[in-house]
């Protein structure tokens, strides 16, 4: 929900949410372990969610000219 909330803030409108029961294939939680990526490639993601969403929103507005 934090991604949805950040998008709502960026675009200045509320998302229409429809909450449904768990669907086949849904998982309760996921975990990303980027240790191998950091060790092998030297890439360490550091962009905070809010900043990434703001960048996406800026790209979207520019790309779609809205």
Q: Can you lay out the helices and strands and say which pair or pack?
A:
Layout: H1 2-11, H2 35-41, H3 49-64
Helix pairs in contact: 1-3
Explain this structure.
The chain has 66 residues and is mainly alpha-helical. The protein has helices at residues 2-11, 35-41, 49-64. The protein is flat, with a radius of gyration of 16 Å.
* Total strands: 0
**Main beta-sheet annotation:** none
Kindly report how far apart the N and C termini lie: 24 Å
Overall mean pLDDT: 94
Helix content: 40-55%
* Backbone CA Rg: 16 Å
Alpha-beta content class:
mainly alpha
Short description:
Helices cover 50% and strands 0% of the residues. The longest helix has 16 residues.
Features:
single chain, 66 residues, mainly alpha
